[in-house]
Amino acid sequence: MHRELRNHIIGLLSANTRLDGRKLTEYRKPIELEQGVVKTAEGSARVKIGETDVIVGVKLEVGEPYPDTPNEGTIIVGAELLPLSNPEFELGPPGIQAIELARVVDRGIRESKAIDFKKLCIAPGEKIWMVIIDICPINDAGNLFDASSLAALAALKNTKFPELEGEKVDYKVKTDKGLELEKTPIAVTVIKIGDKFIVDPDTEEEKAVDARLTVSSIEDGTLCAMQKGGDYPLTIEDIDKMLEIGIEKAKELREYL
Questions:
Q1: Who's near 89: CB < 8 A, 6+ residues apart?
Q2: Residue 224, C-beta contacts closer than 8 angstroms, at least 6 positions apart
Q3: How far is CA 232 from CA 1, 96, 249, in A?
Q4: Are 117 and 72 in contact (CB under 8 A)?
Q5: Which percentage of the chain shows pLDDT scores above 90?
Q6: Hey, how many other C-beta atoms are within 10 angstroms of the C-beta on 11?
């Protein structure tokens, strides 16, 4: 069945169309972004791309800095893939997919220097803010990478610091101080199937992937992170083409922020 589906998809792609009739580099519609969806979090957002639906929550905790960066806070990204969102996901500790999803989101934010970690320092060598980003897909209909990255960014933009009195954090009181974002890294995952490149794969197309490249870029089109996936290698020409598509499509996604 897998081979038949793949051959069918490749046949459609060579005619410049896809299973659902989209063009090769067209995102599913509608794309919806909503902020402040989880009242108990310091920041949150929900992103829908077609039927893919992801919620991201941000918690701010006080912790100790790492010894090598005594005056810098940090981010911690985690993803929980529940069977609720896709019957192929299993309960238990994070699997490879969850770890990779968290890593892709983390890398885009970290490598772009979207957050100035020095501004998260409360007392050098003693206390810092840790920004904890939790990704929770509600429905996985394909392309969790892009939906989660966009939702994480929107949740960070929505984040307000809780009241801090001495050692104690009062989570019931949110201050007016927002989490400053220096840059907005947008992730676009470009998929190679046969000799064609597409964006925003649905679940069926994800089964036919040869290789993928998640490309994160900032406002001026500067590349800040890449993550390769899939079983097949990519040529220099492939990567150039995928970067071009990824940076171009990021402009489209950025408008939703």
A1: 81, 82, 83, 95, 97, 140
A2: 108, 111, 112, 113, 183, 185, 216, 217, 218
A3: 20, 18, 23
A4: yes
A5: 91
A6: 11
Q: Do residues 41 and 60 touch, judged by C-beta distance below 8 A?
A: no
Where in 81-233 does DSSP place strands (E)? 121-123, 127-139, 160-165, 168-178, 186-193, 196-199, 211-217, 223-229
CATH of the domain at 143: 3.30.230.70
Rounded CA separation 8/183 (Å): 41
Q: How far apart (Å, rounded) are the C-alpha atoms in residues 195 and 155?
A: 36
Tally of structural domains, the chain: 1
Residue 86's contacts (CB-CB under 8 Å, 6 or more residues apart) are 137, 139, 140, 203
pTM for the full predicted model: 0.96
Question: What is the rounded CA–CA span in Å between residue 243 and residue 19?
Answer: 24
| Encoded amino acid at 188, one letter | V
Range of the domain at 112: 2-254
pLDDT given for residue 112 in this prediction: 97
Distances (CA, A) of 169 to 46, 48, 60, 147, 157: 26, 32, 9, 31, 21
Judge contact between 245 and 252, C-beta under 8 A.
no
Would you state the structure tokens that stand for residue 188, as one six-digit string?
Answer: 């676009």
pLDDT digits (tens, 9 = 90+) for 145-161: 999 999 999 999 999 99
